[in-house]
Amino acid sequence: MAEVLAGAVPAGTAAGRREVSRSRAVRRFKWIILLPLLLTLFSLLIPVLLLQLYFSFHQWTVYLSSWWNADFVAFDIFASVFTDPRFGWALLRSLAFAGGSTIGCFVFGFLLAYLIYRPFRGQALYYALFILPMLTVPIVIAYTGQMLLDRSGPLNGILSRLSGHDVQVLWLSNPDIALLTVTLLDIWNWTPFSFIIMLAGLASLPKEPIEAAQILGASSWRIFLEVQLPLLRPVILLALILRFLDAMGAFPIIWALLQGGPGTATETLGIYIYITTWQDFNVSLGAAQSYITMVMMVVIVLGAIQLLRKEKRSLDQMYAKPAEAGEAG
Amino acid sequence: MARIELVNLAKSYGPVLAVRNLSFNIEDGEFIVFVGPSGCGKTTTLRLIAGFEEPDRGEIRIDGRVVNDLEPRDRGLGMVFQSHALFPHKTVAQNIEFGLRMKKVGREERVRRVLEVAEMVRLTNLLHQMPSACSGGEAQRVALARTLVTNPSTFLLDEPLSSLDAKLRRELRAECDRLHQELKKTFIYVTHDQEEAMTLADRIVVMRSGQIEQIGSPMEIYSNPVTDFVADFFGSPSMNLIAGELIHQGTGPRFHSINISIALPDPFNDLPDGAVSLGIRPENVIVQPGAAATADLNLPVRLVEPLGKDTLLYFDVGSERPLVAVCEGLTMAEMEAGDRVALTFAREWIFLFGGDGRCIARGKPGSAPMRAQLAGTRA
Amino acid sequence: MTRSQRRHAAAAVRYAALTLWALIVAFPLYWMVSTSFKPSDQWFSWPPVWFPSPPTLENYRDVWLGTTSVAAGGQYAMEMQTPFLALRNTLLLAFGATTLAVLYGSIIAYGVSRYRLLSEVRMFQLLMLRMVPPIVIVAPLSLYYSYIGLLDSMFGLGVLYFLSSLPYAVWMTKSFIDEVPREVEQAAEILGASRWRTIFEVVLPLIRSGLVATFMFILILNWSEYLLALILSKTHVVTLPVELSKYEGSTEGRLFGRQAALSVGITVPLMIVGILIRKHLARGFSFGMVRR
């Protein structure tokens, strides 16, 4: 047997291979795989995070000196972030935007998925069409939005046509509705994402329990509430969490469209940080803001991970194969 | 009361005709088994009765009332699925009580009935488990209980035992039988397993390509198959079918095939000459060691399969499938390949099938051509 | 109402709702395309012009073949380059980073699938890495990059694209690898193949279509990336999305038509790719929450 194997394998390896124990080889294999990743991460992420931390504690005014000569100011900068009302407003706006986008994408995505998941004529066409918005670049959406939502743009044109009189909503220049506008655009952009996730979830539901419920007397609504929804919980959570996290960090679409304006009407966290760092050139303040935002996001993310893992576990358990032979009568 | 009438039912899926012009009545309290190969339309028929599919044509009546327009939940039926179809996120008890909750039965009453039914299928100690913790057999019993508790007039069962191993299948089969005896309700059972059909049914409906091939009690189906298809489908090992010719010679009707020439008894006298298939069940092939001039065939044994209770012997007769003979016990187990034996076909049990598969005649005196047995047209 | 009548009524409602959304989806896209064909006097008129009359190719000509260097004001005080340079950059970056990410990601995925290289927790953490908004690290990142000379370089940006694609690559290819029966690898192992050989000659070829789908999906992400490209590029490494944003500060007024022409150029390839892999999209987004 060994000769046969040796023939199929480069000479010298067979003998060497027998000596290296299997678990050792596996471990070596694992490390080889992970090494590039770890190297890149460490050489990139750690210095960046350290720099970030450094700037949070050292006031650096860009044009005054080189950054390593910045003054140490302990927690002053952090304190200023916490006492900055503008930061609080930016946070609120981020939450509003992310919350609105998440809920909107979810509601529409779920609705669409529910309408479409059973086969019917034209299903493929509708599906292909519905995923398109997700494939557009946020920048493109921003500029197309500019065109559409202009005071004399087509959207107002349609509304005028429908309502009978001249409608000239200032979608982009009215500070009271600017945030809403950009939220709606984001919903348009990302509904396909929730749509696809919910569709996958609905399609994966076992069909026979639903039929069993039907013949046991359940109405469609009951079936939805008691049979489909509970089984869809992991997927729903996934859709909500992913969308929310992504929306909290949304930058391109808001920046390209409104630059945080009009005024500060759409100034979310990301925008504010950008302005602080690249327009006001207050690198230190920006760093502190970034750090706080990052910590916040990490906390949310960790919570999300716990939730999702729990859901995954219950999902695996529910669908586990029943015990094989040896069942008690 | 639950008398079910199927009148001229037809259902296609696109170009595929799943059920064609099916008419059949099921009496109250009967155990009816629809049996046939995959794709024969038996499951479709069941689903039509349940209401999960709508027929293209025809009517379904329950107790005289046309139910085509009723949703499954309004038909008063109960159904057990092939894959137990339990709600994976609810406990066994919650699964069982589901139907009662849909009927707005009060809590106390629900608990009482769930316990009652759980005892009936011996599940009382499982009530708080999740379906994923149940074995296959337990899960199917939960499915049964879930249906039982709603007290339907008719039970529909769609291959409920297919996903279980042989031993479990026999146990649950006995369970189904017992339930039917106790409850005296109508059971409509679908399976592809002829053994299940034979053991459980009051009447068997053999289906093929969307139509009914034959209806009858297990005895009738077995001893008087209307077509070679039915003859071949029932019985294990299946009936031997040999292609050949019916010829009338001076001495009377004879069957001729490649190595075979057999004298046929009187009932075959009035038949015209022509191409036929001869059918004889393995248990009706009488084997004697050595050669005999009076035997139908003298052949060497090709293969011996001792099964303990029986012994199977295989012979080459020039057709694709070997001729199989079943001998009781181990008397023939000593045989080896190559030994010569004498084979005789029990005259009463010889069947002749025509070119179209229909049974033309049977060796048993007094049995007329089987046209009367066929219900439902055949294309 | 009979059953089939009910069925038809429900279908009618369904079609109505779906068509409504279809219009909501299609309209902005239509507007973008039609504007790209509009002569400049029809870019913003009231009442709005629904269909360009006559349709013209001058926007495309100006943008893509343009010798017109629009003096862009605002914060992009530099000359507009012909988008072909941006196109080249985008192509190189997107394809390069994606290829590497899918390759490396599938190797990691193999390790996770067969050898539990990463625990479940780590897998989720990997995913969440991507979820932290990049805005929070771009500032120090750009400083760091300028310090080590990676600013405005393809390599610098490429590494970032590669890293940010990795989580998706690992997750998606893992789901494909999970479906390859272990027996196939065990057969290879008995025949003497090394682990690496098994990966490249046995496992990866078996999930070819999955790899393609993963590749295209990540390609879309990298193609449309904006923030990192914006911050970390100055003159050399301009990508298409950044190129588009230059129109924002244009001193010639709002060049809707040309913006549209460029937008169409950016969007159409993405849509084609997306449509091609539409059947695989669900898999990419499931992350273990959907039963297979």
Can I get a quick summary?
With 329 residues, chain A is mainly alpha-helical. Helices cover 72% and strands 1% of the residues of chain A.
**Beta strand count of chain C:** 0
Looking at how many chains there are and whether they match, the oligomeric state comes to heterotrimer
The helix/strand order of chain C is HHHHHHHHHHHHH
Instruction: Give the name of the CATH architecture of the largest domain in chain B.
Output: 3-Layer(aba) Sandwich
Topology of chain B as a string of helices (H) and strands (E): EEEHEEEHHHEHEHEEHHEEEEEEEEEEEE
Written description of the protein model:
The complex is a heterotrimer of chains A (329), B (379) and C (292). With 329 residues, chain A is mostly helical. Chain A folds into two domains: 12-46, no CATH class; 76-318, Orthogonal Bundle (MetI-like fold). Chain A contains 14 helices and two strands; from the N terminus they run αααββααααααααααα. In chain A, helix 7 packs parallel to helix 12. In chain A, 40% of the residues are buried. Residues 1-12 and 323-329 of chain A have low confidence and may be disordered. Chain B has 379 residues and is of the alpha+beta class. Chain B has helices at 42-50, 92-102, 107-120, 136-148, 166-183, 194-200, 218-223, 228-233; strands at residues 4-13, 16-26, 31-35, 57-62, 65-66, 77-80, 154-158, 186-191, 203-208, 211-216, 240-249, 252-256, 261-263, 274-280, 285-289, 297-300, 303-306, 310-315, 323-328, 340-345, 351-353, 359-362. Chain B folds into two domains: 4-225, P-loop containing nucleotide triphosphate hydrolases (Rossmann fold, 3-Layer(aba) Sandwich); 229-373, Beta Barrel (OB fold (Dihydrolipoamide Acetyltransferase, E2P)). Chain B is elongated. Chain B is built from eight helices and 22 strands. Mean pLDDT of chain B is 87; it is low at 368-379. Chain C folds into two domains: 1-30; 83-284, MetI-like (MetI-like fold), CATH 1.10.3720. Classes of the chains: A mainly alpha (329), B alpha+beta (379), C mainly alpha (292). Chains A and C meet through helix 3, helix 5, helix 6, helix 7 and helix 8 of A and helix 1, helix 3, helix 4, helix 5 and helix 6 of C.
